[in-house]
Amino acid sequence: MSDQDLTAKVPAADESARVENASTAVGRRSLLSGGAGRNLGLVIALVALCVVGVITAGDRFASVNNLLTILRLAAIIGVLSIGMTFVITGGGIDLSVGSVLGLASVWASTVATQTMANDTHWVVMVGVALLVGLGAGLVNGVLIAYGKVVAFIATLAMMVAARGLAEIIANRQTQIVKVQGFLDFFRADVLGIPTLVWIFVLVAVGAWILLNRTTFGRRTIAVGGNPEAARLAGINVKRHTTYLYALAGLAAGIAGVMMLGRTSAGSSTNGLYYELDAIAAVVVGGTLLAGGRGTIVGTVLGVLIFSTLTNVFTQNNLSISAQAVAKGVIIVVAVMLQQRIAERSRAST
After folding, report:
1. Computed from CA positions of residues 20, 24, 29, 33, in that sequence, does the dihedral angle turn out positive or negative?
2. Does residue 13 lie within any of the structural domains?
3. Pick from 116, 69, 46: nearest CA to 300
4. Is 58 exposed, middle or buried (0-12, 13-18, 19+ CB in 10 A)?
5. What residues make up the domain containing 302?
6. Considering the domain boundaries, does residue 103 fall inside one?
7. What CA dihedral angle connects 108, 109, 111 and 114, to 10 degrees?
8. How many domains does the chain have?
9. Strand (E) positions, the chain?
10. Which residue, 146, 238, 251, 332, has most beta carbons within 10 Å?
11. Along the 349 residues of the chain, how does pLDDT read in single tens digits?
């Protein structure tokens, strides 16, 4: 082989290596800026909070009982947040889920409902709560999709109405759950883990499959990304929007049942301001407020971050006001990061 041939092959090899290195670097950047990168950042934040908890509270934070307390705290908000993830991914918002939770817990714990449960089975209480949540979600969806009421206004009206109806039904009193079978089931542990946590896990797994592995999930992302393009692609946007709010209402009903199981009481104050915590967890988890992108894994991590943060503050006897300030800062930082990621995505395209 001549020297000229060798000289020609060396630059070609160098160029090929440069192209390969460049493509690898681009792949790494896209991975880190994508869902895996966001989730990794959330995991790091959660681990950092746990380290702070261990340093400041020691064995009190690291105990098994305290970790289970964090999971119990996360379970109810987590189910609400999963329903909210679908709504926000579809380009909407739901301010009523906390009030619907309260209404479901009150309706399921009335004397009439508990009497039916004692005469038949405690599942009656669960069914009533789920139907109440589903019904409220359907009303929201119909008003927004077919009545063309702005989502913010429609769900704000439902938030006020559901809370008021719960107060009327309960007569501003706390209703104690006396159905023993219901209490025994929701207070039980399975493999040392509370039933409430298992319900959260099952809901999260089912939601992940629904969003990432089904036509429903793909349509949700399409509707949130561009409703008109989704309509032209053959998706019934109005019907799908109704389904999304019904799903959020159903999640609120499940959370209402879980609240009854945890507190043994139905009250019109149950779920107060929980909608704000749910929205915060969804946004911090990486779901776009503008719609078109959602992540169940991110939502779960967001819920765990806020639950851990609350526990760390409680363990260190810090005020609720300080907790609120810390949550506000986290939300603002999360939204700013979302904007930067969106700007980079637009710039790269």
Report:
1. positive
2. no
3. 46
4. exposed
5. 46-348
6. yes
7. 70
8. 1
9. 175-176, 189-190, 193-194, 265-266
10. 251
11. 555 554 555 454 455 545 444 444 444 444 444 567 678 888 888 888 899 889 988 888 888 999 999 999 899 999 999 999 999 999 999 999 999 999 999 999 999 999 999 999 999 999 999 999 999 999 999 999 999 999 999 999 999 999 999 999 998 889 999 999 999 999 999 998 999 999 999 999 999 999 999 999 999 999 999 999 999 999 999 999 999 999 999 999 999 999 999 999 999 999 998 999 999 999 989 898 888 999 999 999 999 999 998 898 888 887 778 877 887 887 787 777 766 766 665 566 5
Q: pTM to 2 decimals?
A: 0.86
- Residue 27 falls within a domain, yes or no? no
Domain holding 239: CATH number? 1.10.3470
Domain annotation covers residue 169 = yes
Task: Find where tokens 């947040």 sit.
Answer: 81
d(C-alpha 16, C-alpha 10), whole Å: 10
CA atoms of 204 and 222, how far apart (whole Å): 21
Helices 195-212 & 296-315 angle (0-180, nearest 10) = 150
